[in-house]
Structures are given as structure tokens and as C-alpha cells.
Give the backbone structure.
Amino acid sequence: MITVTGGGRGVVSHAGARLLADLADTTGLTSAFSEGLAGLRQRRGGHDPGRVAVDLAVMLADGGEAIADLAVLRDQSGLFGPVASDPTAWRLLSQLDEVMLAELRTARAQARQVAWAQHAQTRGALPTAMVAGQPVAGLVLDIDATIVICHSEKESATRTWKKTFGYHPLLCFLDNTGEALAGLLREGRAGSNTTADHITVLDQAIAQVPDEHRHGTPILLRSDSAGSSHGFLAHIRALRTQQHLDIRFSVGAAITEPVREAIRAATGWIPAIDTTGDLREHAEVCEITGLIDAAGWPDGTRFLVRRERPHPGAQLSLFDTIEGWRHQMVATDTPAGNGSIQFLEARHRAHARVEDRIRTGKDTGFGRFPSRVFAINQAWLQLALTGIDLLAWTQILLLDANLARAEPKKLRYRLLHVAARTTRTARRTRLAIAADWPWTDALTSAFHRLAALPRPAG
């Protein structure tokens, strides 16, 4: 039987979350936020708006779900310093209009440039996206939309195409690192394949990529069939010709009647592989580029079809039912000679990883929006993306092995929420984590690596 008292002194919880706050400072994110939000009104001697924004992002990365969860940081001033009150945080969010949100995005891009430079100096090149045991050259951007259900009336929350009620944000993640490059909050009835929204999100995502990586580095944009509108693909092609970006696309495409006729006429089917590189049983792939009319598609677009025996319960079209196969088509402008059609098709199927990014992102802020006001929820989304970035930077800069690949829930359970004892000596705060905690060495090593990171100039 354990006797519980409340008399403990010098003990803090969520000690690992201090790692996130310090990383925000080390990458220059805090100072960039402060500079970008300097025009916001604040009381004399009040909290710096940039610091408030970072604290909100840290709270979301740490698993907080509402502004009231700032109390976890605020009530541990010895660990996190002065943290704004809930009304102050609400006031900040209410002031973040479109101009201020653009400033936040600019600040995130500046911090990302620093974080990537720190990675280059301490760990080398950025992680490479892998598919079927092979590297995908350059950067891989995944765009996808998701539904966030709202359980109360909120501005611009509407009925969705799934007959639920809420928002329908469109997001872009970097597959190499798990960073959340861009996100657009939209009303629930927003279309899945809205060309203008896809262009906005892609442009914002590319603006997050540091200049030295944006130009000269291959970029692959993946999307499901919602990203296959001809206007969006024309915009991607324009980025190649007008901005001289080495960007290619791999998108799902609709199975139309001309495509069905091409499938019937196709020969040369070969076994398909899965994303691990193993042959996938009862699945085949074939290129049908020369068998369909490619009018409206960018020059050089290729069309790959995958067919597999349907699993029990699969939803099939009449064509699939008659043929006895379930079909899916991919459109890509990757030229011939840059991978087998097996690899290119598996490369596209790895786009499904974005669903995990979205699932964990909903546990890192954008699965629940705090306000009835749409503009405040837009600001909340941007801070949630910032929290996701802080977790990603922590993993690529400070952690190793399984922890470098762990989902946020595991990081919180093992590192971020750990308790520690604090002491003050020589005007410095010291954290002592339990010696027998299994991940003490990982956390202390992360703090040591953080302290050794090169600081941004200025």
C-alpha cells in the first residue's frame, strides 16, 4: 500500500517538454516569431507574443488539446519560465489575421532553414525517403485532405462529403522528415479536388523549403486522385518552367471508360511489389501510356495501372466486378529510365504514409479546434503545424534509433512527460531524472546534443 502526500518539493513533470522549448530558441523560431508578431498590441511589461505562440506550439506538441492545458507549463515556472495566462493566449490568437499568419509562416521557414543547416553540420544530409528498399531522390511532398469533426457549432464548420459535420483541411507533409510544411483550414463542404486550394498549399509548402534545397534538389509531389486536376498539374509544370524547380508529380487518376478499354487491351502485366520491396501476391502492374488519349495532361505524363485480386469486403466498381480485379491508376511525369514501373507504382503507394502523419497530427493540435471563430482556428492550425515541426526537428537532430522514428504518443510517454527534480546552483537550473528510468540516457543525450548545436548567426 502506497501512502500519498502532496508535500514534494523541487519536483516537476513534463520535464522533457523543456527540450522542445529550448529547441525553438536554438533554431531561432522564438526570435523569428517575436519579430514577426512585433506589431501586435501588448500591455507594457506583458508577455512577448512570439513567446506566447511558441508556448502554445510546445503545449500542442506535448499533447495538450485546449488552451487551458497551458496550465501544465504555467504552473511549472521553474522549468518553463513565465507562461501567459489563458486570456492572454486567447487574445493573441484573436489577433492573428492573414497578415500575421503570413508572418508566422515566414518565421517557420527561417527556423526550418536553421534546423536543416544544423542537421547538415551535425548529422549530414537530410533523411532520404525510402520505398521498396530503394531511395527516392530529393524531397517527397505528400498532399492530402482530412475531415476534422466538430461537435459544436463553429464558424465555417459544415456538412462534409462523408455526411459528418466539421472542417476539411488540406495539408502537406514532408515524407523525408515528417515535418508539416503547410495546411489550409477549409469549411467542411470544401471539395476534395479543388485546384485553387491545392495550388495554395503546394506554394506554401515549397516556400517552407530552404533556398539551397528548393533549387537543384529533385522534388516529388504525391497526391491521391484529388490532386489530379489538370489545372493543378499545369501549375506544377509551370513551377518547372517559370521557377526552374526540379519538381515532378505522382498522383492517382480516375478509371474512366477510355481507361477501362485500355486496361482490357493492355499486355505485358508484371508482378507488383509492395512498399517493402517484396512481391505482392495476386497483384500486377502495367503501363498503358500509349493506349489512352492524354489530351489535357502535361506533356510526358505516363499512366500506370495496378490490378489485384480484391480482398473480402472491398468496394468494387461494376468494371472491377466483371473483370475480377480491383484496379487503380497512377499518373506521373517521371521520365522513363528513372525506375521500373514496379518501383514507380510502389513509390506512389507510399503516399499512404501521409495518413499516419495526419492521424498523429490530429493528436498534436489539429484534431480539435478551440473556438467558434474561424480565424482563431486558422491560427490554431498554424501553431499545431509548428508543434509537429518541433517534434520532427527533435527527432532528426537530437534522437537516435527507435525514438527517432517513434510516433508522438511514444515520445510523450517515454521522454516528454518524464518527471525530474530541479535544483538551482550558480544561477542555473538543473534537472535530475531518475537514474533507473529506461530512457534517461536518451533524454540527457538529447539535451547535450541540443546544447552543442550551432546557433544561428545574429
